Backbone:
């Protein structure tokens, strides 16, 4: 094997040094600057992406705050509308109840008047019937005819005595 021959070591070392220097210069002038550019561009892109993410996060937080404010405002408006609607319904119900009570009071007065007139008519009929019954009873008991005016006076006296 020629690599292990000691007489061939110095030329191999010289070519090793020349190859090393050429490769070192090529690496220093070509490869390392390109790698540096790639790393810097990646670092810049990462920084831009982080800045963009931060900006978007702030916008998202701002949009969320606006949404929550709008939601709270909508809830407040809805609560106000419900309260207003309840008060309107309560007013309408009170007005309707007042109208109903007035109608019922009017009907009650009309019913009382009707009852009173029916009572008067019934009392008049009762007095007439009582007079006829008394006249018939007296006629059967004593076989005497009693005048209508006397029967009416007796029924009136009896009615006043009970009242």
Residues:
């Amino acid at each position: 094997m020629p690599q292990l021959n000691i007489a061939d070591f110095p030329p191999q070392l010289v070519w090793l040094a020349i190859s090393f220097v050429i490769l070192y210069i090529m690496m220093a002038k070509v490869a390392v600057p390109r790698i540096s550019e790639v790393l810097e561009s990646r670092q810049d892109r990462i920084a831009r992406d982080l800045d963009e993410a931060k900006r978007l996060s702030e916008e998202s937080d701002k949009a969320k705050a606006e949404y929550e404010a709008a939601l709270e405002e909508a809830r407040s408006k809805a609560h106000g509308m419900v309260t207003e609607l309840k008060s309107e319904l309560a007013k309408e119900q009170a007005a309707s109840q007042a109208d109903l009570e007035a109608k019922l009071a009017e009907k009650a007065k009309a019913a009382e008047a009707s009852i009173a007139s029916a009572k008067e008519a019934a009392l008049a009929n009762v007095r007439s019937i009582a007079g006829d019954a008394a006249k018939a009873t007296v006629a059967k008991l004593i076989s005497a005819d009693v005048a209508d005016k006397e029967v009416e006076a007796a029924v009136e006296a009896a009615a006043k005595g009970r009242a």
Remarks:
- Residues 9-142 form the longest helix (134 residues).
- The CA atoms of residues 135 and 147 lie 8 Å apart.
- The mean pLDDT is 89.
- Helices lie at 9-142, 148-162.
